[in-house]
Amino acid sequence: MEPVILKPEGETKKLWKLIWGIVFAFGLLPGLVPAVLVPFPASLVFWSYAGVWTIISLLILAWMEPFYRSIEYVIDEDAVGGKRGVFWRRRTTVPYEKITNVDVSQGPLERAFNIGKVHVQTAGAGGQQGAVAELRLVGIRDTEGVKETVMARVKAARSSGPQAAPAPSAAPGEGEGDVLAQILEELRAIRKAVERRER
């Protein structure tokens, strides 16, 4: 199977900028009332704070673009993987044998931008839907399609994996009734041995 390479949709950056704009505005609110009500020398503290807060916000906005470009997801024949990071790179690989669940989530703002998240979970990642995921694919438009692709590869990996050993069959010439009679005989012998020990 060909590997599927995914990048977050461009709307992801717009969503991040909107969220950061809301955070920036709420960050200015605590000092806004004193700046309006207090005379200029006392309000100088707020304006200094607002200047520093604006510089920090601009740096974060500048960082968003390279961070967005660093994100990449790969669905290949053995595992689902992801990489991201500007200064510190992080790579995550989740083999199909370990995947227990694949969930999709979409918040109200994500729905407005027509994107969502795909959460790839393993046995150790329990909890609410998407609360703890081994790998999160963010900014995905076709979340259901990605989920189905991953789950199809999980099923294919499990079906092509090691098969369970077949149950021992009866000896030639023995029917099902003969095997059951032998099992019953063994159980009676075990019961007699247990009764003797209890005495």
Nearest-integer average pLDDT: 82
Q: How would you sum up the major sheet?
A: 4 strands, antiparallel
Order of adjacent strands in the largest pleated sheet? 1-2-3-4
State the separation between the terminal residues, measured CA to CA: 66 Å
By CATH, the architecture is named: Roll
- Using only C-alpha atoms, the radius of gyration works out to 30 Å
Overall description:
This protein is 52% helix and 20% strand. The protein is of the alpha+beta class. The strands form 2 sheets. Strands 1-2-3-4 form a 4-stranded antiparallel sheet. It has a 3-stranded antiparallel sheet with strand order 5-6-7, with helices on one face. Strand 2 and strand 3 (79-84) form a beta hairpin.
Summarize the structure.
Helices cover 52% and strands 20% of the residues. By secondary structure, the protein is of the alpha+beta class.
Layout of helices and strands:
Elements: E1 4-6, H1 11-37, H2 40-70, E2 72-75, E3 79-84, E4 90-95, E5 99-105, H3 108-113, E6 116-122, E7 135-140, H4 143-159, H5 176-198
Antiparallel strand pairs: 1-2, 2-3, 3-4, 5-6, 6-7
Descriptive key words:
three-stranded antiparallel β-sheet, alpha+beta, 7 strands, 199 residues, PH-domain like
